[in-house]
Amino acid sequence: MTWIKTIPWSEAGEDLRRAVEAQRELYPAEYAVPIHPAPGGQASQIVASHSLIPDALYHAFATFGSLMSPQLPLTRRQQEMITTVVSVKNRCHY
């Protein structure tokens, strides 16, 4: 397993905290509690793996949040089906 240096929430600077909170606002409410929380529980492990570059963290995860927007023409069920199929094809458990 690969080990990636992360910044724990307790040591997060203002830029990292803003990036995590801003991308989180774009996600559906069901995503509020991380399934695989990083130490400190404020973000998932996959989000924390981007903590060294807050701007990249925001843009990477804000993209997904934008794609899950309820204002888009797909239903939530269709959005989840697409994300599930993509994750399976990529052999990713997220």
Describe the protein:
- The protein is mainly α.
- The protein has one domain (9-89).
- Helix content is 47%, strand content 0%.
- It has helices at residues 14-25, 45-48, 54-67, 76-89.
- Helix 1 (14-25) packs parallel to helix 3.
- The two termini are 16 Å apart.
- The model has no long low-confidence stretch (mean pLDDT 89).
Principal-axis shape: globular
Radius of gyration: 14 Å
Beta content comes to under 5%
Distance between the termini: 16 Å
Number of strand segments: 0
Class inferred from helices and paired strands:
mainly alpha
Characterize the biggest β-sheet: none
**Average pLDDT across residues?**
89
What percent of residues adopt helix (DSSP H or I)?
40-55%
Our count of domains comes out at 1
Order of helices and strands: HHHH
The residue ranges in which pLDDT falls below 50 over 5 or more consecutive positions are none
Q: Treating each run of at least 4 consecutive H or I residues as one helix, how many helices?
A: 4
Record keyword descriptors for this entry.
94 residues; mainly alpha; 4 helices; 47% helix
Secondary-structure blueprint of this entry?
Layout: H1 14-25, H2 45-48, H3 54-67, H4 76-89
Helix pairs in contact: 1-3
Short description:
This protein is an all-alpha fold and 94 residues long. Helices cover 47% and strands 0% of the residues.
